[in-house]
Description:
Elements: H1 3-12, E1 19-24, E2 31-36, E3 38-44, E4 47-52, E5 57-60, H2 66-79, H3 88-111, H4 123-149, H5 154-165, E6 170-173, E7 176-179
Antiparallel strand pairs: 1-2, 3-4, 4-5, 6-7
Helix pairs in contact: 2-4, 3-4
Amino acid sequence: xxxxxxxxxxxxxxxxxxxxxxxxxxxxxxxxxxxxxxxxxxxxxxxxxxxxxxxxxxxxxxxxxxxxxxxxxxxxxxxxxxxxxxxxxxxxxxxxxxxxxxxxxxxxxxxxxxxxxxxxxxxxxxxxxxxxxxxxxxxxxxxxxxxxxxxxxxxxxxxxxxxxxxxxxxxxxxxxxxxxxxxx
Length: 184
């Protein structure tokens, strides 16, 4: 059941229902249950805002769940006959192409002399920000397809990468994090 459907069921069918959430602590595979009390729910055009007692504000949006969008991307790729391991090298090159297209948008933003905070002030800057979002989305699309071709789970890849870096010590030099072992 989708989170959105569960929330709607609880709100409209059984608002007094007790909800339990699960949390995984550190590297443990054992989940701990905790109670979730709905404090308030507000419906907006693009999603549902859910405020839980003792937890922060959580946003759920039907259209922005990463896994669902990933499935749509894979359905599209399947329809285009892309999901074969022999296509992986070509897909990697497509990924690189999309990275350079994103870089071009970043460079354009730098040329017009604006920081990220100032991007929203005029049409040209808004258009550049929208182009950057589109190009970043294209990067995600190419990576999702590439992961499928190589039988990799993108969420598992991200989780493994985070676990690799989460306790890493080092120093940020000129905007780049350098791990402790590489500092000289």
